[in-house]
Amino acid sequence: METGKLIVFTGPSGVGKGTLLRKLLTQHPELVLSTSVTTRLPRPGEIHGTDYYFVNLEKFQQMVANQELLEWAEFAGNYYGTPRFQVEELISQGKWVILEIELEGARQIRQTFPKALRLFILPPSLWELEQRIRRRGTETEEAIAKRLRRAQEEINAANEFDIQIVNDDLEKALENLEAALFVPC
Ligand SMILES: Nc1nc2c(ncn2[C@@H]2O[C@H](COP(=O)(O)OP(=O)(O)O)[C@@H](O)[C@H]2O)c(=O)[nH]1
Ligand SMILES: Nc1ncnc2c1ncn2[C@@H]1O[C@H](COP(=O)(O)OP(=O)(O)O)[C@@H](O)[C@H]1O
């Protein structure tokens, strides 16, 4: 039977993780993106069960206590976590499952799934990163400030990952991502 694979996808907020993953999944529909649980409020257009499972703090804490999360972390004032059941089930079915998660969660996965392939997406510069977050127009000033403070810390940890990809030109970044994922091994 084909073996499943866990792929961790990390990078600072606004670097283009979501954009790259949407394109990757369109071209490779066999890949599965895990849907996380979060206490963050939905942005306009975000759908419960598709973008995230949006839950309150009490429910999130309950999931942590019941060990329902494979990993979890606090990010910019909210909690995020990966539901365990869907990931374990999909990998056992031979699927390639992608976790789009922040640094602390990626470190936890390194302990629990040492075989996971870990990718880090870098911005061309911090200035460009800030422009992207602002252009996206989804965050308050306070949320932007929190994300930028965290960005430097995350970028400093990029070398903990197996592969680093700079998202400057989107198409080139996508090509590099495909090359990293689909190398014969
Ligand atoms: N540890 C962990 N981080 C997550 C999870 N889901 C999302 N994140 C990360 O949480 C951070 C904030 O996500 P989000 O609020 O959607 O903001 P955005 O990255 O600015 O689009 C990002 O770095 C995500 O990769 C999860 O299940 N676990
Ligand atoms: N290579 C790129 N060049 C210019 N803008 C980009 C690029 N990749 C993504 N963006 C834009 O940057 C913003 C943040 O991207 P997004 O995918 O939401 O980031 P993340 O999921 O990492 O927070 C979006 O407005 C997106 O259209």
C-alpha Rg (nearest Å): 16 Å
N-C termini distance? 16 Å
> Strand fraction band?
15-25%
Query: What is the name of the CATH topology?
Result: Rossmann fold
User: By helix and strand content, what is the structural category?
Assistant: alpha/beta
Instruction: Please count the helical segments.
Output: 7
Give the overall form: globular
Task: Give me the CATH architecture, please.
Answer: 3-Layer(aba) Sandwich
Number of structurally distinct domains: 1
Describe this structure in words.
It contains 7 helices and 9 strands; from the N terminus they run βαβββαββαβαβααβα. Helix content is 42%, strand content 22%. It is globular. It starts with a strand and ends with a helix. It has one domain (5-182): Rossmann fold, CATH 3.40.50. A 5-stranded parallel beta sheet has the order 2-7-1-8-9, sandwiched between helices. Strands 4-3-6-5 form a 4-stranded mixed beta sheet. The relative contact order is 0.21. The chain is α/β, with parallel strands linked by helices and 185 residues long. The longest helix is centred in the last third of the chain and has 16 residues, at 141-156. Residues 4-182 form the Guanylate kinase-like domain.
Strand and helix layout:
Layout lengths: L4 E6 L6 H11 L4 E2 L3 E2 L14 E2 L2 H9 L3 E7 L2 E6 H9 L3 E5 L2 H10 L4 E6 L3 H11 L4 H16 L6 E4 L3 H12 L4
Parallel strand pairs: 1-7, 1-8, 2-7, 3-4, 8-9
Antiparallel strand pairs: 3-6, 5-6
The structure holds guanosine-5'-diphosphate (GDP) and adenosine-5'-diphosphate.
